[in-house]
Every structure is written in structure tokens, then in C-alpha cells.
Amino acid sequence: MPSISSSIGLKIKKLRSLFVSRANERKITNGHENESVNVGLLEESEQKDEISSTRLPISIPVLLLRSITKTRFEMVGEALESIFGGINEEVPCTNLKKGVIVAHNDNAYAVGRAVGSLISGITQLWLDSRVNSQFVRGLIDAFVDIESNQRFNLTQLTVISNETDTQIDTISRLILLTRKSLRSIRLRRVLISECDSACFLWNSIGQCSLLDNIEYEPRKKDRISRSFIIDALEGKNLDSLILSSVDDLTVTDLISIASTNGLSQLRVKGSLLYPSSLINDHFNRTLVNLDTLLIHIDTNFSLYDSIEREALLILLSSLKETATLEVVHGAVDNPTEVAKIVSYWLHLADETNRQVKLKMEGIHQELQDSAVGRLMRKVQSVHRIDWSPHQLSLSNKKGRVILLDCASLFGNE
Fold first, then answer.
1. Closest-CA residue to 178 (of 91, 90, 119, 100)
2. Of the candidates 211, 227, 255, which is a domain's last residue?
3. Which domain holds residue 404?
4. What pTM, to 2 d.p., does this model score?
5. Which of 2, 164, 261, 281 is 20 to 30 A removed from 37 (C-alpha atoms)?
6. Are residues 12 and 204 in contact, defined by beta-carbon separation less than 8 angstroms?
């Protein structure tokens, strides 16, 4: 697999000039001298920050930013009461209701800047609003502007959706700022259309020295990020890897990423990743250590394909006895066919004495319930082990299949 490391230097130089044009340059006056501060890539030498007299030596455990209307957003988290006074001094139109800070969208930058000037870090930051980018720009600017000898510490970052590549560039800047402390990055329903933005994002992620969990689930097929992803994650000691809709991702790529054999959770969906493609001696070194493996089966998969069935038997047998195979299986709107799919996985679980979590895709709950009822009436050896509001556990002698309801998703925990 070709590496892009030989050309990354040129790409970073291009990104420097790109960011100079995108970011606001601030002038700091000292006597008769004016010095431009480029906040683009946040070089190591530019990260000497000292905590100002107004910054509190506290870290917010959890901070969730989410939209509540088209014009207002809220911050939900722990210990917000302790910093609300400082925020309200900077942005008087904010208010505190039952531990939740509410503000107008137009004040997102000012609120982010106020938060950044008051705290030393956030353990979990969850961005799920229309003003993610404005808030993050304020947060970054507060730390860049205040001379400090302490980094902004962020452990877990979750970003839900974006509208433009410029917004993704802002997230990339935040990742660079917190690259010494970030352990988990989750990017959901994001969209990247420019190679420069994709390169900048994954180069930023590649600089996170403690990263052990990465989740990237774009809302449309990503045709430009594959090589950047491989270059950023190759050699990382990851514990969990979740990728979907990355075009042309292959098992060779997964082997390259998982070469350190530290993965315990692998959830990857791709058009070139099907059961028989995963049967590989090198990939088997990763399989045997996994606690969770997710595969995707589309509606074109044949239940009567002996090669793919044999591959699934090998795949299941390669997993630890305590491991779980998660399956997203596309189905048609037919209870008989759905019953056959459930029966198919019950037999595989029985033959390998393994656990399979099955998520049926493309059908409604009533049809799934009808199919399960039909199967249990016709096959006496199939019995229910357990039941909860969101899943049903079935077994056919040995092993088990945990069937998720149609509203549930893997990883909801």
C-alpha cells in the first residue's frame, strides 16, 4: 500500500497558506512593533500558554453543546455553575436553568471564548449543534491569545455533523491544540469534500500521541480520505476502530492499521470488505485478539453461497469464545426471507459455539417480530434465552444470536 508520508510536507505547506487566508490574523501591539500571529497549525513553539488570573484551575468532566431551537443552543454538563458567573460577565444574555447554560446562536463564539478563558480543560466534549464551529473557534482563540504554560487538556471529542469544510478545519485546529491529551475522537455524520481539509484533519489526528479510539462515520461515501486515514492511523496503538463509508478500504488497509495487534474492537463497513476477503493469515493475528468485530452483509449476499458460508465459519471460529460478531444484515421486506436470515446466523452460532449480534437493516419492527415468531413455531430447537425492550436472545442448541430491534444501533452503550 503506497504511503503519503513522502508528500505530506508539501501538503502541510499548502495548508499553512490555506489557513492564513481562512483564519483571522490578530495584531498584537508592543511599543511601535506589530506582530502577526498565525493561529493556523499551532506549532509546538507557539503553544507556550500561561494561565491568566481569571482562569480557574478546573477541568469540566462533561460538556455537551446542542441546539434547542434554530436560534438558541444550550451547554449541558457538570460543574457549569462554577463558571457561569464568569461567562455571564462576558456574555450577559446567557442564562442558567437547572444547571444548563442557554445562549443565542450569535453569542456562540463569545461563549466559547469565555469558557476557554475560565477553565484548564474538558474531559468529554460533545458537539451536537448548529454552532459547533463558532464555539470551538472561541475556545481555541482564548487559549492561543492568553500566554500560558499549560495546555488545554481534552480527553474525548465527539462531533456530530458539519455543513462546510471550513467547519471541519476548525475541528482540526482543536485536535491539534489538544493532541497531547486526546485519547478518543468520534466524528459522526460529517462531510468532507476537499482534499486539503481531509489531509489537514487526518494529519491532525495522526499527531495525537495518546489516541486509542477513533470513530469516523461520514454521512455520504467518502472518496478522498482513504490514503490520509491509513497514513494517520498506521502504527497507532488503537483499542477501538470504527470506520464506515470510506471508499476502496480493503483488508490490507486494516492489516496496516492493526499491525500493533492492540485492537479489541473493530467495526468497519466497506464495499470491498466481505466475509471471504477477511480470511487472511495476517489479519487473523488481529482477529484472535478482538472482543468485538462488526461486518456488513448487503441484500446481494446469497445465503446459499458455500464459499462465503465457509468463510464465516472460519471467521467465527477465529474469534475468542468470549468475543462477539456484530452483523448488519440488509434484508428485503419479506417475513419468510427474514426468518431464513435469522436461521442462517443461528446455525452458524451453533456450529461455532459463538455469540452473534444481529441487526436487520431495511425492514420494520412488525415484520421482524413476525419472522421470529414464524421461525420459533417451525423449528423446535430454536428457543428464547433472554429478552429486553431492545433485543431478543435466541439459541439453537449452542451459541446464541442476539437480535436487536429495528430502532437500536450497535454502540448505543
1. 119
2. 211
3. 321-413
4. 0.81
5. 164
6. no
